[in-house]
Write a structure and sequence with these properties.
Organism: Populus deltoides (Eastern poplar)
Bound molecules: 2-acetamido-2-deoxy-beta-D-glucopyranose
CATH superfamily of the largest domain: Ribonuclease III domain
InterPro entries: RNase_III_dom (IPR000999), RNase_III_sf (IPR036389)
Keywords: RNA-binding, Signal
Number of strands: 0
CATH architecture of the largest domain: Orthogonal Bundle
Largest sheet: none
GO molecular function: double-stranded RNA binding; ribonuclease III activity
Strand content: under 5%
Number of domains: 2
Protein name: RNase III domain-containing protein
Distance between the termini: 71 Å
CATH topology of the largest domain: Ribonuclease iii, N-terminal Endonuclease Domain, Chain A
Length: about 180
């Protein structure tokens, strides 16, 4: 009896959910989240062929199983690669110690990716569960890194994602290199 009532309940929940989904997909273009994605594409100077990748990049693991965790791993590798390309390109004699220092500088949560991510206002874009603080540096960072993973997958090229990273990050690097 109890399990039967549960089934009915589950069916009602499921159909309400699908109706909500149907409604959501019909007015997808006009939702605040979709407008935020449009604005974000303008800010980073890259338009996605498949906006689904950016949508996923802006979805924290607390919000959905379809989230940015794996994309942010790729994004983190894209950033490490483009930082290495940049410093080795500038100076082929750079020591491994210095190169590693630059890589870890650029990978730092509090001073690098959370700063870049906040500058893009990702805390106001990324979807999180109601209990999750979207301004937390780790949340902002995973969203920021995931953008570059998403671009790499969208173009199937790491280079393109790296270029967008430098465009977004360059004022910050200018500041660091002036010191
Ligand atoms: C959310 O996180 C930010 C950054 O860590 C912090 O300043 C803010 O107080 C937090 N907000 C809440 C409601 O916990």
């Amino acid at each position: 009896m109890a399990s039967c009532r549960f089934t009915v309940f589950a069916l009602v929940v499921l159909s309400t959910y699908s109706l909500a989904q149907f409604g959501a997909s019909r007015k997808l273009k006009s939702s605040p989240f979709e407008s935020a994605l449009d604005m974000l594409q303008n800010q980073i100077g890259y338009t996605f062929k498949n906006i689904g990748y950016l949508r996923r990049a802006m979805t924290h693991s607390s919000f959905s199983q379809e989230n940015n965790k794996a994309l942010s791993i790729l994004g983190s590798n894209v950033i490490d690669t483009s930082v290495s390309m940049y410093y080795l390109g500038k100076d082929i004699e750079i020591s491994s110690k210095d190169l590693n220092r630059w890589i870890s500088e650029n990978a730092k949560v509090d001073t690098s990716c959370a700063v870049d991510g906040m500058r893009l206002g990702l805390n106001r874009v990324v979807r999180v569960s109601p209990k999750t603080n979207s301004t937390a540096p780790t949340v902002v960072c995973s969203a920021f890194r995931a953008i570059f993973g998403a671009i790499a997958i969208d173009t199937r090229k790491v280079d393109d994602a790296g270029s967008v990273f430098w465009n977004v990050h360059c004022s910050e690097v200018g500041r660091v290199m002036d010191m």
